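Hypothesis: this fold can be encoded by more than one sequence.
Test: take the structure tokens below, design a sequence, compare later.
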């Protein structure tokens, strides 16, 4: 089935492998629409609602595991449509498509800081708010610490709400419970920070992450709370634990390969003393149809 005829020429679509759009390089065929502006994105989303077209929102694909068999829902690729950044003193409004490293670099040039640790995260502002990106439970630092408000499409119209309107916790936001809410931009209040000091923090962060396997496809942390057991090297098919909480695709890994590794880790943590009740950090896409 193709959705383009139902979209009334709102935006062109193309059929592609989702493995070309995810950092794990895993994912089957889907029809993808890529709006080029916020207005085009709103028109597309409204059209989908009016025509009962099921859709999923794709950002950078940096923490996404997609079914190797593909997805029949329309995929709306938001990487190009909301790329503006506006600074007014310590207030910064960034579009959902802005990359987190890009935002960190931008505010540094305005003597602002606070999110230097997110420079190593290849996600977008929209994805960062959606997942409440941060350094982990042990550091108690998340993007929502600086969030003032979020502009989003609520399924009918554009709405802007303050941070207090939403719930945030470790790797969680209210947006995960509302599939019809699509983040368009976010406004933050960042602390003043000397550019030289912020730049050094970024260098320190990148040095710390240098030891991680980055040459092969991966989607970052697998579990929200980390995974304490020595699973490094465990492999199923072409999916392999490169460290205790990171899975890499060494060739042609499938979504089932990755899911089996995750299942082993969860079972092991339940039966071995010192294990944890693991919560998956990946967003997992399976076809509902």
């Amino acid at each position: 089935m193709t959705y383009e005829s139902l979209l009334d020429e709102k935006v062109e679509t193309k059929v592609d492998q989702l493995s070309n759009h995810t950092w794990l390089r895993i994912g089957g065929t889907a029809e993808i629409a890529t709006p080029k502006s916020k207005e085009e994105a709103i028109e597309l989303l409204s059209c989908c609602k009016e025509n009962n077209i099921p859709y999923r929102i794709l950002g950078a694909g940096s923490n996404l595991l997609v079914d190797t068999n593909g997805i029949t829902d329309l995929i709306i690729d938001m990487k190009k449509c909301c790329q503006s950044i506006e600074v007014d003193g310590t207030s910064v409004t960034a579009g959902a498509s802005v990359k987190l490293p890009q935002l960190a670099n931008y505010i540094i040039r305005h003597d602002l800081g606070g999110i230097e640790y997110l420079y190593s995260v290849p996600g977008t502002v929209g994805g960062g708010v959606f997942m409440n990106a941060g350094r982990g439970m042990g550091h108690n630092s998340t993007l929502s610490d600086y969030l003032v408000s979020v502009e989003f499409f609520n399924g009918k119209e554009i709405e802007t709400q303050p941070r207090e309107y939403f719930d945030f916790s470790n790797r969680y936001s209210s947006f995960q419970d509302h599939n019809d809410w699509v983040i368009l931009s976010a406004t933050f209040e960042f602390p003043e920070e000397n550019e030289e000091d912020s730049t050094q923090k970024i260098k320190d962060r990148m040095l710390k992450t240098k030891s991680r396997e980055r040459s092969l496809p991966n989607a970052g942390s697998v579990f929200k709370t980390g995974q304490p057991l020595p699973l490094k090297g465990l492999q199923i098919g072409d999916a392999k634990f490169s460290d205790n909480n990171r899975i890499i695709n060494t060739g042609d890994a499938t979504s089932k390969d990755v899911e089996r590794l995750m299942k082993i880790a969860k079972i092991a943590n339940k039966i071995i003393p010192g294990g944890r009740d693991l919560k998956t950090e990946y967003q997992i896409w399976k076809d509902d149809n």
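The chain has a mean pLDDT of 92. The chain has three domains: 4-77, 85-208, 213-285.
Hypothesis status: open.
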